[in-house]
Amino acid sequence: MFRTTLPLIAAVAFAASVAIAPVASAQSGSGPAPVPAQEISDNELQAYAVARLEVNEIVENVRPQLDAAETSEETSLVEQRAYQRMATAIQGSGLTVERYNQIGATVQVDPEVADDVRSYMIEQQ
Predict the structure, then answer these.
(1) pTM, two decimal places
(2) What is the pLDDT of residue 30?
(3) Helix (H, G, I), strand (E, B) or coil at 103
């Protein structure tokens, strides 16, 4: 089996244990800059929480496929499909992927924003 250190999986594992990390930034290669908390509306935090839950679910569904991938090409194809599904989920929540990643970067560095997102995620479950 071909295994990969997929940034997507690492981000979700971190998100599940501590805070919520941006995932789709793995596509661009560089992480987004955090934005000041006061520039993030409650509606955006709620949308981020909804998208984050969907992204978490996508990642959980992709893990077995990544484990089963036998070549780097298979792994790349699984990753590509996962990124597309995540982008669709993020956009479906009302955020752009760029804004989602900006909020995710802020969540990583601002405990109050991270707590707000966690609360919204709990409300959604």
Answers:
(1) 0.75
(2) 64
(3) helix
